[in-house]
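Researcher: Let's do a round of design. I'm pasting the structure tokens now; please hold your answer until I've finished.
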């Protein structure tokens, strides 16, 4: 694939994930005890990407402070922080002075099994202005639909189409290989790839190619998808498993009477007390205390969570520093503040 730059769009406010994103930007949400963005960067580095620009907006400081110049990620990182929302293609246009060769664009909250090398090679062979990674789904109504001709070129975009009869089942994966020349179609200010740039390019008579791929796809834009990503990773059904934290952290204590079932990750210095039952897929952060006679099932606990004795937590996300009183019942909830 050679030298390649990637632009990662990571500036959104993550409103559908609130309250989880009230104090953390979406790329920093812990997934199996690592910020989600780490998985994306490691996968790009493994694919041969050497430089990545992070287009940031909402709460950028925590991202910049954590990742620095990327010395622990295997690629060089640079940042662009929006003063006001520019949209997906607007943010990339702002990087035009830095993008003088073929580049990759992807969203910072999507997990896919896209083979980046194959995607770039296909684009390079055809030398179009842009190649879009497209993915087949049963119900495309929540996504951007891509209609193609017999040769795989885009003929139409339909945002959030109405069913039940769809013109196509291919959706825009939010991953593109582009040439810098395409950015001249982007005006200054706010602009979106899906609704502004790509339709404008098509109207100008320029072809956009597609690369069809199959495999895992998860848009971590909702609490439901955030939980399902954990479930899929822990069950070995999603990519990035190789980058996950160890199943048992350092100085973790598990009482001999505790019962552990299914795939479970325990963070450093976490303590599991007597007669606790843990049922995976389950992820516990560092320094958690799970007190006696508690049952935890299919949930995600961030760091420093103290679960009172006799509690039941199921299908829930519990934020950092939370203390649950004895005999608490948390079922299908998202809690980040102590009541």
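Researcher: That's everything. Go ahead.
Model: Designed sequence:
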């Amino acid at each position: 694939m050679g030298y390649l730059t990637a632009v990662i769009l990571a500036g959104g406010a993550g409103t559908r994930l609130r309250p989880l994103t009230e104090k953390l930007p979406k790329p920093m949400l812990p997934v199996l005890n690592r910020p989600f963005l780490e998985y994306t960067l490691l996968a790009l580095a493994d694919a041969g990407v050497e430089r990545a620009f992070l287009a940031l907006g909402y709460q950028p400081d925590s991202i910049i402070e954590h990742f620095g110049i990327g010395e622990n990620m295997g690629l060089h990182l640079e940042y662009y922080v929006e003063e006001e929302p520019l949209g997906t293609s607007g943010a990339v246009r702002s990087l035009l002075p830095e993008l003088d060769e073929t580049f990759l664009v992807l969203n910072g909250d999507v997990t896919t099994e896209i083979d980046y090398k194959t995607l770039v090679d296909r684009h390079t062979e055809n030398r179009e202005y842009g190649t879009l990674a497209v993915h087949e789904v049963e119900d495309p109504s929540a996504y951007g639909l891509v209609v193609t001709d017999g040769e795989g070129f885009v003929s139409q975009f339909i945002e959030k189409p109405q069913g039940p009869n769809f013109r196509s089942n291919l959706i825009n994966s939010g991953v593109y290989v582009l040439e810098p020349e395409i950015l001249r179609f982007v005006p200054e200010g706010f602009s979106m790839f899906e609704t502004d740039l790509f339709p404008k390019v098509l109207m100008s008579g320029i072809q956009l190619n597609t690369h069809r791929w199959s495999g895992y796809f998860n848009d971590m834009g909702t609490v439901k998808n955030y939980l399902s990503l954990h479930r899929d990773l822990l069950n070995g059904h999603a990519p990035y498993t190789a980058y996950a934290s160890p199943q048992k952290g350092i100085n973790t204590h598990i009482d001999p009477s505790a019962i552990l079932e299914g795939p479970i990750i325990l963070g450093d210095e976490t303590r599991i007390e007597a007669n606790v039952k843990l049922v995976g897929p389950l992820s516990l952060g560092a320094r958690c205390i799970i007190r006696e006679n508690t049952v935890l099932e299919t949930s995600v606990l961030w760091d420093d969570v103290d679960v009172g004795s006799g509690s039941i937590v199921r299908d829930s996300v519990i934020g950092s520093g939370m203390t649950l009183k004895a005999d608490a019942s948390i079922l299908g909830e998202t809690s980040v503040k102590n009541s």
